[in-house]
Write a structure and sequence with these properties.
Layout lengths: L12 H10 L20 E2 L7 E7 L18 E3 L4 E2 L5 E7 L14 E5 L5 E6 L7 E9 L5 E7 L14 E5 L5 E6 L4 E5 L2 E4 L3 E3 L4 E2 L5 E7 L24 E9 L2 E9 L16 E2 L5 E5 L14 E7 L5 E8 L14 E2 L5 E5 L13 E5 L5 E6 L14 E2 L5 E4 L9 H4 L8 E5 L5 E6 L7 E3 L4 E2 L5 E7 L14 E6 L9
Parallel strand pairs: 1-30
Antiparallel strand pairs: 2-34, 3-5, 4-5, 5-6, 6-7, 8-9, 9-10, 10-11, 12-13, 14-16, 15-16, 16-17, 17-18, 19-20, 20-21, 21-22, 23-24, 24-25, 25-26, 27-28, 28-29, 29-30, 31-33, 32-33, 33-34
């Protein structure tokens, strides 16, 4: 079944974000067909251990709502993004909704950054106001050795451009004492290349978690803005799959002293067929040489979709600060997968691993995503093809590797299809946590029920030195608030999975 991500936004940008996790992403307004398998792994009937899930926090749990907050959801709603562990054992994350009912998202809230102590105490670190400070924090946060946190918010900030009065997002810092500051507000460079399609040439709507290097430089991506060409160009007619929202960018923010940062565009995607890809939802990873790696949701080779099925790319530092762009792999949308949202992961041999939300069917008729491996030579092999049945489907979460070389991940759909899992998630099912062993055997470690344990886990897992896994689920938990009967999400801990953390 194909589903559509509506990019005529703000019915809204946030709806698109949530639908990308609840549905099998298809094309921009037309539908990216999904598909089947190249090398399908066997599905294990049970995990190696008997995992136990503990809910660390269920959102919208406020019994009293302070004035100016979303009723019942001063603690946030709809957590999104990989969690961050600091050296003291505290866990930090972001909730995209809830919190303060003001500014650009007065009805559903502007989201917040939260903290869970080693003792299990939940607290709000910062609630966004929906103005120049940003709104809808996405992708989680990263930290530096001084205890400062860095992240992105998809809305708020500078008005105009692709997202108009909603604002085009910011990069922010929260100091160790809890003070928030905006390091960069997108759409400072605006133009009108085509009538009716205003453009943020420096990017719009940052979505993914930032990458921070040892010098404190921040690297990230925006889904929109940049060049309004190819897929991101204005539609020539009502049947066109083009969006007019731009193709997104890769950027760098470098500290210049006294809390200031300089912004630099590293790459603007063209969205032109067989050139470079379009709309990077995923964040970046880096190797020891400073090369950056990421994926785009669309663009690249036409394959099953005439707007492209996404690519894996590399940005390599060159002379005078210039970065060289290279496509490592173009998805076809058939058995090899399509529409990657998950970040990549390296192994010790230079292989890249990732997941796609669509594709997997050799005939391009259906598709629920794949887990794939990409060799240094650019050869792709599929480790598992999802069925959207008991094994899960549509993974947007990146992969975590343990000390045995086994991979762990989560899916947004599949698994349990009863209760809210049958009604709240358009793709069906509340998702699972899974493992792919070094030998290629696939097993489900936990199947979400959509109750207090959560549903639709949407972010990469993290682990502690004892082998416990931690993650967030966008649905389930407490009903009410912005997500209604679907629940407002949870933070969970999964123990007893057999995760080998001896090298952590």
């Amino acid at each position: 079944m194909n589903t559509t991500i509506d990019l005529k936004w703000r019915e809204n940008v946030m709806n698109t974000n949530k639908e990308s996790h609840r549905k099998k992403p298809s094309s921009w307004g037309r539908g990216l067909a999904a598909g089947g398998a190249v090398l399908v792994s066997s599905i294990g009937s049970a995990a190696l251990a008997n995992p136990t899930l503990t809910t660390l926090h269920a959102f919208c749990s406020s019994t009293n709502s302070p004035p100016g907050t979303v009723p019942g959801c001063a603690d946030g709603s709809y957590p999104d993004g990989k969690l961050h562990h600091d050296r003291f054992g505290n866990i930090y994350g972001t909730a995209t909704l809830g919190g303060l009912a003001s500014g650009v998202n007065a009805s559903s809230g502007n989201g917040l950054v939260f903290k869970i102590s080693p003792q299990g105490t939940y607290s709000v670190v910062y609630s966004f106001q929906g103005g120049t400070d940003g709104s809808v924090p996405l992708g989680g946060v990263v930290g530096d050795p001084a205890g400062n946190l860095y992240g992105v918010a998809g809305e708020g900030g500078t008005n105009g451009g692709e997202l108009g009065t909603q604002g085009n997002g910011v990069v922010y810092k929260i100091s160790s004492n809890g003070t928030q500051s905006v390091l960069y507000s997108f759409c400072q460079n605006q133009n009108l290349p085509f009538p009716g399609y205003p453009n943020c040439s420096d990017g719009s709507y940052p979505y993914a978690k930032l990458h921070i290097d040892q010098n404190g430089n921040l690297y990230g991506t925006t889904i929109f803005g940049g060049l309004e060409t190819g897929v991101g160009g204005p539609p020539p007619d009502s049947t066109s799959a083009q969006t007019g929202f731009g193709n997104g960018v890769v950027f760098e923010l470098s500290p210049t002293g006294r809390g200031n940062y300089s912004y630099r565009l590293l790459y603007q995607f063209t969205g032109i067929t067989n050139v470079d890809g379009a709309n990077p939802w995923a964040g970046l990873i880096a190797d020891a040489a400073g090369n950056l790696y990421g994926t785009t949701y669309g663009g690249g080779a036409p394959g099953i979709s005439n707007v492209g099925n996404g690519v894996v790319y590399q940005l390599s530092p060159g002379p005078w600060g210039h970065y060289n762009y290279k496509v490592l792999y173009q998805f076809t949308g058939y058995a090899d997968g399509s529409s990657p949202v998950a970040p990549l992961r390296f192994d010790a041999y230079g292989n890249l691993y990732g997941a796609t939300t669509g594709g997997g069917d050799a005939y391009g008729l259906t598709g629920n995503g794949v887990v794939y491996k990409l060799s240094p030579q650019g050869r792709e092999s599929v480790l598992h093809t999802f069925t959207n049945g008991s094994d899960g489907g549509s993974p947007s979460a990146g992969l975590l590797e343990d000390c045995n070389g086994d991979l762990y991940g989560a899916t947004n759909s599949g698994g349990n299809v009863s209760g809210i899992c049958a009604t709240a998630n358009a793709a069906g099912g509340c998702g699972v946590v899974y493992k792919i062993s070094r030998s290629g055997a696939y097993s489900v470690l936990y199947t979400f029920t959509g109750g207090n344990d959560g549903g639709s886990p949407n972010a990469q897992l993290i682990a502690d030195s004892s082998g416990n896994l931690y993650g967030v689920a966008g649905l389930g938990g407490n009903p009410g608030g912005p997500e209604g009967s679907a629940g407002n999400g949870t933070v969970y801990k999964l123990s007893g999975t057999g995760f080998n953390a001896s090298c952590y």
